[in-house]
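explain this.
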Amino acid sequence: MALMKPEAQLPTVHPFAAVLYQDELFNLQKQSSLNYLAAEELAMTIEMVSGVALLNQALETEDLVSIQNHLQNPLIGFNKVDEEHLEWYASRLVAIKREASSHGQDILSRDEIQNHIDSVNVEIQEVEEMHAAVIAINEAIKEGITKQTLVTLKNPKAALTSVDDSLAENYQKALWEAKQQKEEKNILSEEERDEREELLTQVEIQGCINKINRIVAIDQINAVIREGHPRNTVMALMKPEAQLPTVHPFAAVLYQDELFNLQKQSSVDYLPYEQLSITVEILSAIVLLNKALESEDLELIQNHLQNLSIDFNNLDEEHLERYASRLMSIKREASSQGQDNLGWNDIQNHIDRVNVEIELENALYAAVIAINEAIKKGIAEETLLSLKNPNAILTSVDDCLAENYQKELWKAKERKEQSVKMKNILLFEVEIDPKEELLTQVEIQEIINKINRLEAVDEINAVIQEGHPSNTMMALMKPEAQLPTVHPFAAVLYQDELFNLQKQSSLNYLAHEKLYMTVEILSAVALLNQALETEDLLSIHNHLQNPTICFSNVDEVYLDRYASRLMSIKREASSQGQDNLRRDEMQNQIDRVNEEIQEAEIQAEEIIAINEAIKEGITKQTLQTLKNPKAVLMSVDDNLAVNYQKELWEAKQQKEEKNILSEEERDAEKELLTQVEIQGCINKINRLAAVDEINAVIREGHPSNTVMALMKPEAQLPTVHPFAAVLYQDELFNLQNQNSLNYLAPEELSTIVEMLSGVALLNQALETEDHVLTQDHLRNPSIGFNNLDEEHLERYASRLMSFKREASSEGQGNLRRDEIQNLIDIIYVEIQEEKASKCSPFVFAEWLITSVSG
C-alpha cells in the first residue's frame, strides 16, 4: 500500500506479489549500513521486482512468448541469458513454478530464477560437450580402430556407463554394425544427406554397450549356474549388466535349484536372456510369496498368489484364503525339515490338491443330500444305493444290513430335525435352514459303523463259544468290530481268556465295551509275552508299566528283577509247550518278587543285628540272632555257639581290616558280614564238628553208624551209598590207622568218600551185570584205576563180573578198590602178552625185559 501511494513517485507495483516486494526490500534494507533505502535505490529495486512479478505471472499461465520476453527484460537484468536457449529456460522455469506452487510457494524470487538459468546453461554446455564426444565416438567407430573407440567411449563427457575394457572388440563390432544399419536407412543423395542424422546418438551407443554387457553377463550367469554355488549365482544375477528383474539374495538356493533344473532341460544347456529374465521374474515373485508365507500375512499371500508374473494355473479367487492356509501349513512343515523355500511346482501342486478337495467336497455334499432324501422316503433299497455312491466316501456298507441302516438312520434324522426345530423355537427364528436338518457324512458313517459293530460283536461272541482260536482271531480283526489291534501269534491267549470271561457273564455274551477293554489288555499282554520271548529288557520294562495291563504293586525300582523272573518263567513255560503267560500268572510272579524283596529287606535288618551281636562278643546273644528265622540261616547248632562266635568274630575283623579308609570315607555297610558269609562260617564250624564225629565213629567200628555220620549234611561230603556201609567202614578205618594222628581231615575225607562211592556204584553195576554202566564206572576219574585199556573195557567188565559172582557166593558184599585194581592189572598183562606174541621175537624180548624189570 505504501509503495503504491502517488506521493512516492515509484514505478508500477503489482499487489499479487506483495510478499515478493516485502522480502526483497527487507533484505536490501538490511544490507544498507543505515538500514535505509534512498528514493533512487528504492525506485530501481521496485522496477526490478515488478519485472520479476510479471515473469512469475507469465510462468503461472505458462505463456512461453511472454516468459521469453520477460527473461530478456533489462530491468530484471538476468545474467548469461542466451537467446538461442530461451525456450529451454522457459520450459525449465514453468516446471519449477509448478512444483513450487504444489508446495505452497506463490512466487519465485529473482535469485531462484537466476539459479535455474545457470543450471540450464551448465546442462547446455554438458549437452554440447556430450555431442562433441558422441561425434568423436562416431568418427572412431568409422575408422574401425578398437583402442581409439574405447578411449572415446570412456570420455567422461560422453556420459556412458559400464564400459568394460575387456569387451572393447565386442563394442567396436556392435557399434560398427549399428552405424552401418543407420546409414543404410538414410537413402538420400549426397546433396540431401544430413550427416548428423547418420550419427549414432548417445542413447544408441549406450544401448549397444548395454547389449554387449548383457550378453557377457548372461554367459557368466549360465556358467555359474552349472558350477552349482547358490551365492555365486545370485551375485551374477544381481549384476546391473545382466539387466534382469530384482533378485532377493536370501533365497539363493531357490534361484540356483530352479535355474539349474531349467538349464538341464535345455537342449544346449543354456538359458538365453529372454527366458532367464522371465524365469527370474517368476522366481522373485515366488520368493516374495514364500516370505509372506513365512510371516503368515494372509492378505499379502493372497496378493502374491494373484501375481501375473507367477501365473499359477486354476486359481479360484473364491478360495484364495484356503490356498493361503494350506500353503502356510506346508511352509511350516518344509521349514521344520530344513527346506527354506517352496518352489513353483510345490505351490502349484498344493493349489491343484486344494481344487481337487473342493471338487470332492462339493460332490460329497450332493451325495449327502441324496442320502438324506432317500432316508426320508423310507425305502431301504434306495437308501442303500445312495450310501454306496462313491462320492459319499462311506466305508464298510454291507448290503445284508440295509434294513438295519434304514431303521437307524431314520431315527437319527427324526431326532436331528426335532432338535433343530426346538433350537429355532428357543431362538425365536421363523425360517429353518434345510442344511441344519441334514445328517452329515460323519453322522451317517457313525451310524453305519454302529450297525456294523453290533453285527461284528454278535459274530465274535458266536465264534468264541465255538472255541477255535484262529476263527476267533479272524473275527476280532475285522475292521467293523472297531477293536484295538490284535496279535495273531497269541490266538490261544485271546480265545482262552475271552471264553472264560464269556462264561462268567450271566448272558454268556460280551458287550462291545467289555470286549474292547479286554482285547486291549490281552493285546498288551501278548506284546509283553513277545518281549519276554526275545528277552528285550527295555521293551519288557515299558510293557510292565503299561497302564492298559494295569499290573498291581509294580515298583519301578525293581523292574529289572520282575523282568528277569518273568523271562525265566517264560522259558520254562515255553519248554512245556505253553506259548503265552496269562496276565494273572504274570501278576502272581510280580507279587512273589515283591514278597521276596520284602523278605530280603527284613533279612537285611536281621543281618545287621547279627553283625552287631558279633561285635559285642556275647555268644548267647549271637546265637539268638543266628536262630532268628528272618535271617534264613540253616543248621545252627546250640552246642557250637562258642565256635560260631569265634569264627564270625575273626571273619568280621578280617573284613574290616581290608576296608582301610578314614572315618569319613568308611562305608559301614561294606564292613558288614553278609548272609552268605555268615552261613559260610556256620557251615565251616558244622563241618569241622561233623568230621570230628565221623572220625570218632570210624574208630568205634560200626558200619551203619559210620554211614549215618558220613551222610549228615553238615559234613558236606559227596553222596554216600548205605548199601556199601562195610566198604566205607573198612577202607576209612584202614586209612585212619595209617595216619600218624589217627585222624582224617575234611579234604582228605571228601576225596576218599568220593572214590569209595564210585567203587560202591561199580560194585552195584557188577551185581546187576550191566555192561554199559560197569564200563562207565571203570572210567570214573574219582576212582582213578590204572592200566585201563579202552579197547578192552568189555573184557575187564566180564572178568570183574565173574569175580564179583564168586566173591558174593563166598559171602563178600563188595569188592575193594585194590582188589578191582589187581584184577585189572592181571588182565592188562594178559592183553600185553597177547599183543607181544603177535610181534617179532626181538620186540617180544624187549617187551619181556621191560615187563620183568617193571
About this structure: The chain has a mean pLDDT of 91. The chain is about 65% helix and 0% strand. The radius of gyration is 59 Å.
